[in-house]
Each structure stands twice: as C-alpha cells, then as structure tokens.
C-alpha cells in the first residue's frame, strides 16, 4: 500500500460538510429542563435518543479494547455500508470492488449512489485468486474493497486478509458479521497497523438482535469522524440502544447461545451425511451451510411446501441452497423433510 492520506480518498464535499451536533448530547447537565428539541413533554418515548450513543460505545470500548472515538454505531451494518460509500465514492465517477459471490448489499448501495460495481470472481473453493485481485486493483483503481469474512453466502473465511489490506490503494472494509462463529481472530486487531481499514460487526447474528438493527464500525479516528459526519442525527432508536446495552450485560447468555449453535452445526454435519439428495456440503465458519443438491428446484420447492424457508442461491451458485442453522427442533424438521426426498 502506498503512503496513505485519507483526504485523497474522501469526497471533497464531505470534507467540507459540517456535522449535525446535538447541543444536549455533547454537554453534561445535572437536572435539565428540556425545551430545546420541540419534543412532547408527555409519553414514554417522547425524548430523542442519544445521538452520540455514548453508553453503548463505552460498553463496546471496554469489551473490545478499542477507543470510543474509533467506534461508529449504525442502524444495522447496512446503514454503515451506505455511509461508507457516501463518504468515499463520488457518484457517477468512483467504483467499488466486491467478491463474487458475496453479500449483495455492497453492490446495492453502490448502485444507489451511482457507483460502478466491480466483481472479483472467487475460485471453485470460494477463495480469492490473488493474481486476479492484484490485476483488477491496479487496472480499475476502485475506492473501496468490501471483503466479507466469513463470507455470505459461502460460509468460508478469507485467508491472509492482511495481503488484501496491504495491496489495495483505497479503503478496505472487512465485514465480520459472522466472526463469532468462526473461531478466527478479528481484524480489529489490525486497526492500529492499517489506517485504510474499516471493520464491520453486528448484533444481528451471534448476539440474537436482528430485530434491533444495530451495526458497528471500527476504524481510525479520522474515518469514524467522517462516518459520524454523514449519519442521520438519531440513526439508532432509544429501544434498540437500550436492548443492545442489556444484551452486552448478558454476555454469558450470548456465549451459551453461540455454543449451542456450534453444537447444532456439528449435529447437522453428521446428519447431512445420510441425506442422499445432498451432493456437497461446503465448509462453514458461519451459522449457515451452503449445500449443493441433486435437484435443487425440487428440494427447495418441497421445503417451501412444508414451510421451511431457505435461501436458494442457484443459478448464481449452481444447484445450491443456503440453509441457516436453527434450534434442534427446527433442524430436526429440516432433516426429516430432506430424508423423505432422498431419491430426488
């Protein structure tokens, strides 16, 4: 990576943009009379939430050992993906790079922002071919590389992530939505080493808080300041903030749930071996499996008839379905249906 200067990557109008600052949230008061925000004085949720998410950030800082000013909170990771693109990518001019296949929302938000989406095809084992990465990076000069690890929908972790951070002359976003299931080290450990790195994590998966819509970005102070400049003032609501803080205080429960999921992954792996309509179960570091079937349309259709909802990835990934790991009752129902149609 060449000498890094954040100002060379940020859109000029964003550098000049003045952030919205809530006077209330950026000052300390003992017993204030709140007549500043045109709120109703009545009701349980009549006050705006903390626009700076101070308590949540402090909790995260303590458990992650990352300074508060290197943490941004989003309305799910989706909002943070959108904001990162808005900070760095000039509409109709800049492009992003993403793996193919990978999480579709990187390309979705880039397209909304009128940025070109360049796709880096993975090999048959869903790994990045380094020579292809170098060739595309040197040829197209993308502003952002979205790297999902463990990858969705393939389930595998990307090896040698530092290579891609070192050899990309732009912003590298490592999306770690499923990191808690993988046993791998988080790239947050690399933040001090690489000023072009952003790490995304979420409360939607291992923490069991998908309905709260809370995502986290970890990066340099400069990049986090830019994200906070372009975010909506009250982007995470009061209820979601409080529920997220509650679950952080119940980490033993979360650890137990993760362990139960890992046990179910092992149980399913064993059960899949006796399902004849399965051609291949791909290795996974996430809480889902990518599975190749003999007759994917019939399998998917029969599962749907029995109200078992899965994610058909064919034709993008030929003959494959992505199947989330449920609890034992749900997983047993899945196996029972699959075994009924072994001759498909």
UniProtKB/TrEMBL annotation:
Enzyme Commission numbers on file: 2.6.1.9
Organism (species): Chryseobacterium geocarposphaerae
InterPro entries associated with the record: Aminotrans_II_pyridoxalP_BS, Aminotransferase_I/II_large, HisP_aminotrans, PyrdxlP-dep_Trfase, PyrdxlP-dep_Trfase_major, PyrdxlP-dep_Trfase_small
GO BP terms in the entry: L-histidine biosynthetic process
Top class in the EC scheme: transferase
UniProt-recorded name of the protein: Histidinol-phosphate aminotransferase
PANTHER family named in the record: HISTIDINOL-PHOSPHATE AMINOTRANSFERASE (PTHR42885:SF2), HISTIDINOL-PHOSPHATE AMINOTRANSFERASE-RELATED (PTHR42885)
MF terms in GO: histidinol-phosphate transaminase activity; pyridoxal phosphate binding
Catalytic activity of the protein: L-histidinol phosphate + 2-oxoglutarate = 3-(imidazol-4-yl)-2-oxopropyl phosphate + L-glutamate
Amino-acid biosynthesis listed as a keyword: yes
Domain Aminotransferase class I/classII large span(s) in chain numbering: 37-337
Subunit and partners: Homodimer.
Family named by the database record: Belongs to the class-II pyridoxal-phosphate-dependent aminotransferase family. Histidinol-phosphate aminotransferase subfamily.
CDD domains: AAT_like
Pfam families named among the record's database cross-references: Aminotran_1_2
């Amino acid at each position: 990576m060449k000498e890094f200067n954040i100002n060379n990557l940020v859109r000029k109008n964003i550098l000049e943009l003045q952030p919205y600052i809530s006077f209330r949230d950026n000052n300390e008061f003992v017993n204030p009379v709140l007549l500043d925000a045109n709120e109703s004085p009545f009701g349980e949720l009549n006050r705006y939430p903390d626009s700076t998410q101070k308590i949540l950030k402090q909790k995260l800082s303590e458990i992650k050992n990352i300074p508060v000013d290197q943490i941004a909170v989003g309305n799910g990771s989706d909002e943070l993906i959108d904001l990162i693109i808005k900070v760095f990518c000039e509409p109709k001019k800049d492009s992003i790079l993403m793996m193919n296949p990978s999480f579709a929302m990187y390309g979705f938000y880039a397209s909304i922002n009128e940025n070109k989406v360049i796709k880096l095809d993975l090999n048959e084992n869903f790994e990045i071919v380094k020579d292809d990465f170098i060739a595309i990076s040197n040829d197209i000069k993308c502003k952002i590389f979205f790297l999902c690890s463990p990858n969705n929908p393939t389930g595998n972790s990307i090896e040698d992530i530092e290579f891609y951070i070192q050899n990309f002359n732009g912003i590298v976003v490592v999306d770690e939505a499923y990191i808690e299931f993988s046993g791998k080290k988080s790239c947050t450990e690399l933040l001090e080493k690489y000023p072009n790195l952003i790490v995304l994590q979420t409360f939607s998966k291992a923490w069991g808080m998908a309905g709260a819509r809370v995502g986290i970005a970890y990066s340099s102070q400069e990049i986090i300041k830019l994200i906070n400049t372009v975010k909506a003032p009250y982007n995470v609501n009061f209820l979601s903030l409080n529920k997220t803080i509650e679950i952080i205080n119940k980490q033993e429960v979360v650890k137990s749930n993760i362990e139960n999921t890992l046990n179910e992954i092992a149980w399913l792996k064993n059960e899949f071996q006796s399902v004849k309509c399965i051609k291949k179960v791909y290795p996974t570091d996430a809480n889902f499996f990518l599975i190749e079937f003999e007759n994917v349309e019939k399998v998917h259709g029969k599962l749907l008839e029995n109200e078992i909802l899965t994610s058909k990835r064919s034709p993008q990934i030929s003959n494959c379905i992505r199947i989330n790991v449920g609890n034992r009752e749900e997983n047993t129902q899945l196996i029972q249906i699959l075994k009924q149609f072994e001759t498909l």
